[in-house]
Amino acid sequence: MSDTQAQTVAFVRETEIPPSPPPIREAGAVKWVRENLFSGWFNTIMTLVALYIILRIVIGVFPWFFNGVWDAGSIRECRDILEGATGACFAVLVDRWDHLLFGFNYPQDAYWRPTLAFVLLILAAVPALFYMYVPSKFLIGTALYPFLAYWLLWGGTLWLPIAVLAAIILTGVVFRLVESMTVSTRTIVAGIVGLVAGVGLAYLLYLGAKELWFISTSIGTGGAFAGLMSLVFKAFSIFTYVFFIPMGIFVGYAIYQSASDGGLVTLVTSLLAIALMMLYAVGPVSGVLNGIIPIELAAVESRQMGGFMLCMMLGAVCVSLSIPLGIVLALGRQSSMPLIKGVCIVFIEFVRGVPLITLLFVANVMLAYFFPPGSGLDLFLRVVIMITMFSAAYIAEVIRGGLAALPKGQYEAADSLGLNYAQATRLIILPQALKISIPGIVNVAVGLFKDTTLVSVISMFDIVGMIRGPIQQSTDWISIYWEPYLFAATCFFIVCYSISQYSQWLERQLQTDHH
Amino acid sequence: MTTLADQPVTASNESFKLSMLLNDTRYRSLTFQFIALVAIIAFMAFVGGNLVRNLTEAGLNISYAFLGEPSGYDINQRPIEYDSQSSHGRAAVVGLLNTLIVAFLACVTATIFGVIAGVLRLSNNWIVSKLMSFYVEIFRNVPVLIWILIIFSVMINVAPSPRDFRGDDAVASMWLFDSIAVTNRGVYLPKPVMGDGSMIVLAVFALSVIGIFAFRNYARKQLFDHGRMVPVFWPSIGLFFIPAILTQFVLGNPITLSYPSLQGFNFRGGITILGSLIALWFALAIYTGAFIAENVRAGIQAISKGQTEAAAALGLRPNRIMSLVVLPQALRVIIPPLISQYLNITKNSSLAIAVGYMDVTGTLGGITLLQTGRAIETILLLMAFYLTVSLLISFFMNVFNNRMKLQER
C-alpha cells in the first residue's frame, strides 16, 4: 500500500478500528427495559403497579398451589394435613374426578365409553379442521363419527345407528337413481310420487284444518284477546279447508310436471324415501339384525349424563346443528320474498332479544306442552332444540354480515353465468361468505360452549351443576369453592382458548388477498 | 296476503298456465311464499292443537289473573314499596327494576374496565400490555356463570360476618371512619337523609351542572371565534363541587348522612348493597369488560397509522392526538359492538338466579312460576320483558350511533 504514496509516511492504519461497544445504557436488556418499562414517569408508575399486581398474584397463588393437598378424604382431613398453612385442597378433584367429568349417575363400568368418544371426537375433527393437510378420504371417518358417538354414549344396539346410516346412504342412491333416469321413466315415477305426495299433503292439511278449528273452539271464551285469537284461528282453519285440495293437486301436478328437468321430483322422492325408511324400516331392521348378531352396549339415559361430558356433548351437538340452520336463516333473511324474510327476521330478532336462560326455562317447563301428549321428549333433547335455535340466530347474523360483505358483482356475475339461485348460492356466494364469517362463527361457537354451563340452572348436572349440587352440598366437601371452580374454569379455558387460536390460524390460512 | 286465487287475475292479459307458477320467475316466489304460509299455518295447528290438548289434560288454562293475587314471598332488595302481601305483578315489577339496576351498574363499570384494559393493551409498556392480554384471555374464555359463582363464593366466605364487628375486640372493623361496613351479607353504605332545604342544594347542584355545559360551549366559541384557549378542566371541576357545597354549608347542612350501625345480628340504617348484587355486578363488569377491551383495541387499531403521524406532524402532543384525532374516529368503530355488549350484559344479568339476587328471572320466572305453576304465562311475560328492554337499548344506542357517525355526503 505504502508504495503508492508519493513520500513514505510514518504510519498508515491499514484496517478499520473495530467499533467500540455502545454505552451500556443504550444496549441490550438495559436499553429494552429503559425504553419499554421506564420511558417516562407515567410509564414507570404503570410498570411498578403492574409488577405489584403480579407480585400479589404470585404471593397469593404459589404457596396456595404448591402446598396443595392431593390426598385426603374430606375437607376436614385436608385442613388437618395443612395445619393452618395456606394450601389448596386438590383432593376434592381426585376424590370427585369421575363426578366432575361424567356426572354422578353415569354407570361406572362405562366410563371408557365417553372417554373413547372424546378421543375419537378429536380424531374425527382433525380431517375437518386441517382439511388442507389431511387427504379428503379421512373425512369419511368424520362423517361416520356421529353415529359411532351416539352408540358409545347412549348405548343400545349398534345396528340402530348403522340402520340409520344405511337409510341415509340408500336415500342418496335413490337421489342418484331418479336423477339419472330417462325422461320417460322419470315421468312414470313423477306421476306416482306426485300422486302420493299430493294426496298425503292434502290429507295432512285436512287434519291441520280440523286441528285449527278445534283450537279456535277451545280458546273462544274469556276476554277480548282470546276472542280475537279464536277468530284468527277460525280464519286460518277456513283458509286451510278451502285450500287443502287445490294445494294437494297443485303440489302433485308440480312434481309430475318437473319430470322433464327432474329437480323437484328427485328431491321429493328422496325425502319420501328417507321418511318412509326412518318411520317403518330402521327400527324393525335393526331389531332383526341385533337378533341375529347382537352387538350391544348397556343403554344409558340422557339424564344420567353430567359433568364436563355434558357440556362437551351439548356444545358439539348444538354447534354442528346450528350452523346449517343459521345458514338457512341468513339466506332467508336476505331473501326477496317478504313472507320468508319476515319470518326469519322475527325469529332471529326474537331469539337474540331474550336471554338463553328463558329459552332453557322454555325447554324445561314449557316445550313439553307443544308436543303431542305422552311423546315424552327427554330434557337433553329439549335443551338441544332450544340451544340450537339460540345459537342459530346468532350464527345467522354473523353469516348475514358475510353475505352483505360480498361485493355485488359476485351476485351479478353468478347471474350472468346463468346459474340459478341454488347453484349461485352453493358455488359462488356461500363459500366466500362463510370464509368471511369464520371468526364470527367461531366466536358464537365459543360463546355457545361457555353457555352450556347455564343448564345447571334448570337442574341438569353439568360441571357447574355438579359442583354446586353434589359436591358443595356433600358432608365431605361442604362449601369448597376455589378448587372445583378453578378446575372447571381451566377445562373451559383450554377448550375455548384452543378453538380461538385455531380460528386465528385458519383465518391466516384462508387469506387470499394481499397485505 | 297473497293467495293462489289472486294470481290468475294479475296475469289475465296473457294466457296463464298452471305451470307458470313453478317455472316463471314472476310467479315462482309467490308460489314459494304461499307454500311457506301454509307450512306456518300447519305448524301453528300442530303446536297449538298440542298445547290446547295438553292444557285441558292438565286442567290448566291460560290466564294472567295470578298477577293480581298476593305473592306471599319476600324480596331482599326492594327499590319500590313491596311486602309479601303485595301482588305477583308488583313482585315482577320489583324484579324488573332490580334487573335494570344491576344491568346499568354493570354496563357503566364494564365500559370503564374495558376502555382502560383496551387502551393499556396497546401500551408500549411490555409488562402492562401483557398483563392486560392475560386479563382479557382469562376472562373471555371462561363462562360468566363460573365467574359469578367464584366471586360470590369468595364474598360470602372471605368477608367477615356482621357478628365479627361486635364487641370491643372485634375481628373486623368498618372502613372510612366507621361509615362503610363490608360483610358477607353485603356492603353497608351511608345513606343521605333529605332535611328541610335540601331541595335548594339539589337545585343549585343541577344549575351548576347546566352551568358547566354552558361554560364549555362558551370556551369552544372563544376558541373557534377568537382563537383564545379558555381553560376548561379546573373551572368545570370547581363549578361541579363548590356551589353545591357552599349552599350546603350556608343552609346549615340540610342533607345529612345516616350511617349504618350494628344492631342485633345485622347492620341497620344506611344503604345496603347485597352481596349477590355485588358478585353479579362485578362478575358481569369484569367479564364483559374483557370483551369491550377487545372492541376498544380493535377500534383503535382500525385507525390508520397515517392519522397519528399526520397529527404528530401538525405538532399535536400524544394525549391530544389520542383525544382529538384517534378516539373520535375509533369511537365510530367501537360503538356498534359496544351496543351488543350492553345487550349481552342485560341478558346475562338473568344469571342472577344462580346467586339468589331477585331480578325479574328470580321473581317472575322463579318463585312466581313455582308458586302459581303458570309456566307459559310467566315465561312469555319474561321474554316480552327482555325483548322490550333489548329493543329499547338497541334503539337508543342506534340513535346515539347515528349521531356519532361520519356525516357522509
Automatic annotation (TrEMBL), chain A:
Q: How does it sit in the membrane?
A: Multi-pass membrane protein
Which is one Gene Ontology cellular component term of this protein? ATP-binding cassette (ABC) transporter complex
Parts of the chain that traverse the membrane:
41-66, 115-135, 147-175, 187-205, 212-232, 238-256, 263-285, 305-331, 343-367, 379-399, 480-500
Q: Which UniProt keywords apply?
A: Cell membrane, Membrane, Transmembrane, Transmembrane helix, Transport
User: Domain ABC transmembrane type-1, which positions?
Assistant: 308-503
One GO MF term on file is: transmembrane transporter activity
Q: Which InterPro entries match?
A: AA_ABC_transptr_permease_3TM (IPR010065), ArtM/GltK/GlnP/TcyL/YhdX-like (IPR043429), MetI-like (IPR000515), MetI-like_sf (IPR035906)
Which top-level group of life is the source organism from?
Bacteria
- Gene Ontology terms: biological process: amino acid transport
Please state where this protein is localized.
Cell inner membrane; Cell membrane
Q: Which family does it belong to?
A: Belongs to the binding-protein-dependent transport system permease family. HisMQ subfamily.
Its protein name is: Inner membrane amino-acid ABC transporter permease protein YhdY
Q: Which organism is it from?
A: Boseongicola aestuarii
From TrEMBL, chain B:
Q: Which domain of life is it from?
A: Bacteria
- Lipid bilayer topology: Multi-pass membrane protein
Q: Which GO terms describe its molecular function?
A: transmembrane transporter activity
What is any one of the record's Gene Ontology cellular component terms?
A: ATP-binding cassette (ABC) transporter complex
The entry's keywords: Amino-acid transport, Cell membrane, Membrane, Transmembrane, Transmembrane helix, Transport
Q: Where found in the cell?
A: Cell inner membrane; Cell membrane
Q: Does the keyword Oxidoreductase apply?
A: no
Q: Which residues cross the membrane?
A: 30-52, 91-118, 138-158, 200-219, 231-251, 271-293, 351-373, 379-400
**Residue stretches making up the ABC transmembrane type-1 domain:** 96-397
Query: What Pfam families does the record tag this protein with?
Result: BPD_transp_1
Primary location class: membrane
Query: Which Gene3D superfamilies did the record assign?
Result: MetI-like (1.10.3720.10)
Q: Name one GO biological process term.
A: amino acid transport
Q: Which InterPro entries match?
A: AA_ABC_transptr_permease_3TM (IPR010065), ArtM/GltK/GlnP/TcyL/YhdX-like (IPR043429), MetI-like (IPR000515), MetI-like_sf (IPR035906)
PANTHER family according to UniProt: AMINO-ACID ABC TRANSPORTER PERMEASE PROTEIN YHDX-RELATED, MEMBRANE COMPONENT OF AMINO ACID ABC TRANSPORTER
Q: Which family is it part of? A: Belongs to the binding-protein-dependent transport system permease family. HisMQ subfamily.
Recorded protein name is Putative glutamine ABC transporter permease protein GlnM
| Source organism | Boseongicola aestuarii
